[in-house]
Amino acid sequence: MYNRNVVFLDLETTGATATYDRITEVGLIEVDHGEFVREWSTLVNPGIGIPPMIQALTGISNAMVATAPRFEDIAGELRVAIEGRVLIAHNARFDYGFLKNEFRRLDISFSAPVLCTVKLSRKLFPQHARHNLDSLISRHNIQCDARHRALGDARVLWHLAQQWRDDPGAAAVLEATAKLLKTTTVPAGLPDTVFDGIPEGPGVYLFYGDNDVPLYVGKSVSLRTRVMAHFSGDHRINKDMRIAAEVKRIDWIETAGELGALIEESRLVKKLFPVHNRQLRRASELCSWHWPADRHSEAPQLVSARDLPGGEFRDLYGLFRSRRSAIEALREIAVEHQLCQGLLGLDQRNGPCFAWQIKRCRGACAGMETPREHALRLAAALMKLRVRAWPFPGRIGVRETTADGERSELHVLDQWCHLGTVKSEAELHALQETRQRPLFDLDTYRILNRFLLGGKHRPQIIALTGSGTSAA
Q1: What mean pLDDT is reported for the chain?
Q2: Which of 287-301, 305-319, 424-438 has the lowest mean pLDDT?
C-alpha cells in the first residue's frame, strides 16, 4: 500500500444488510504513496430510521442525521475521492457492498480495487487468532477517541498501516498486499461490467462459451469472489486460462446456503456435462452389491442406481461407477480373504471353484467349510464397504436461511436422496403429495454424509411426516 494511492475508508450504517440498510456516516483518509493527503467525513441522512441498538453503538441518532445530506448529495464527491485509489477497509466486503448498493440505487456503476485489513492482518500476523478492529487496537496500542464513528475507525486503519511499515516491515506488507490485490482481468469475450451484478452470497455459477455451450459449473459460499478468482492472473491454472479464452457468458443461481449450492452444482454437472468439469457421474451408472441379512445363504446381487431398493440401503456394500469396477472389487475381497468365488457368483463352473484348486479358497464349495462359516467371513470382509444406513426414520427437511434472514429454503431428503428444494408450505405440500421414488446418487450420498454427519455443520433438521412437519 506504500507504493499506491489509497483511501482508508469506514462507514456507519443502519444495520448489516447492504440491500436494505443504508449509510449514516462516511469517513475517509486519502494517502498517496504512503504520504497523508487529507481526511474527510460527513453524516448521511439514510432516509430510514436508525435502530436503537445501532444508535447506542455508534452514538449517531435520528436527530443528528435529519438535516445531513443524502447519499445522492455526496455521491459525486465521494466517487472522486475513491476513483483511481485502492479502497482499504476493515472487513472490506461490508463497506464495499454498501457503497455498491448505494451507487446502484442512483444507476451509477461503481467498482474499485479493495484491500481488506482483516485479511492483511491475518497474513502479516498468522500467530494471532483475533483480527477484529478492537483486537488490533489493543495489540498495537493505538489510541482511538471515536470508536464506531467513521472517521475515527478510518484513522485507526491509517495508524495500523504506519505501524506495519516498521513491523513486520514495508517489504512484508507490500508482498502480502500484492497477493490480496491479485489482478482480476475481465475475459475478452465478456463486458467490462460482468462482475458487478454477481452477488457475494452462496450459490452456483455457470460459464458458457460459443453457442451457449456449457464450459464449467462451480459452487461457492461467495459467488462473486469465487468467479473473479478464476480470472486472477497471478495464480491462474491451465483450466482457468482455457475458460478465460472461451467464456462468452456467465450465469449464476443464488441459494440460501452451502448445502443448496452443493446439491445444485451436482445436479447441473450431470445435466449439462460442462466441458471443463472432469468428474461427470451419471446416477444411472452407479451400482452396489446388495446382500440382505436374511438371505446370507445367497450370493450378493449387483444392483444399479435406478434399481436400488429405497427401504434397504442398510444392505448395500460399496458404491461403484461401473459393473466392471464392482465385480473387480468383490473379486479382490474374495482373494484377500480366501472366499469362495463360486458361492459369490464370480465363478460359474460346476463343482469346486478354480480358487479352491489353486489353494486360494478355504473350500466352502468343496464341503470343507459350512455355508454359515463362509457367510460370516464374507460379512466381516464386506463391512468396510457397507453403505451407511439412513439415520432418520423417514423424510427430513434441512432448512437454510440467507445471511440477511430474508429468504429460506427447505431441502427435502430421504434415504440419502434429494427429493427437491421448496420455498413455501404450498411447495412442500405439493412435493409431499407426489411421494416420488428416491433415485440414489453417489455425489448426493457423499454430500449429505459430510453435511449431516461430518460434524462441521449444525444443520436445522425438520422431520417430515406426510405433508406436516415437526422439529427433529
Answers
A1: 87
A2: 305-319
Alpha-carbon span 453 to 472, nearest angstrom: 14
The enclosing domain of 125 has a CATH number of 3.30.420.10
Determine the structural domain holding residue 226 and report its residue range.
203-280
Indicate whether 346 and 436 sit together in one domain. no
Cβ partners under 8 Å of residue 441, min gap 6: 266, 270, 281, 283, 286, 305, 417, 418
Question: Could you tell me which residues are beta bridge partners of residue 460?
Answer: 399
φ, ψ for residue 97, nearest 5 deg: -65, -40
Do 85 and 11 lie in one domain? The reply is yes
Specify whether 16 is located in the same domain as 98: yes
Strand partners of residue 306: none
For residue 302, report the phi and psi dihedrals to the nearest 5 degrees: -85, 125
Q: Give the amino acid at 6.
A: V
Asked if 240 and 201 touch (Cβ cutoff 8 Å), the reply is no
Question: How many Å apart are CA 326 and CA 379, to the nearest integer?
Answer: 17
Rounded to whole angstroms, the Cα distance separating 139 from 132 reads 11
Say yes or no to pLDDT of 9 above 50. yes
Taking CA 306 as the corner, what is the angle to CA 291 and CA 206, rounded to the nearest 5 degrees? Answer: 130
Is residue 444 domain-shared with residue 331, that is, in the same domain? Answer: no
Summarised one tens digit per residue, pLDDT across range 273-311 is 999 887 655 555 678 898 887 777 788 988 876 666 555
Query: Which of 352, 385, 418 lies at the terminal end of a domain, its last residue?
Result: 385
CA distances from 420 to 259, 432, 459 (A): 12, 10, 17
293 shares its domain with 274: no
Q: pLDDT tens digit string along 355-367? A: 898 989 998 888 8
Q: Say if residue 63 is in the same domain as residue 167.
A: yes
Q: How many domains does the chain have?
A: 4
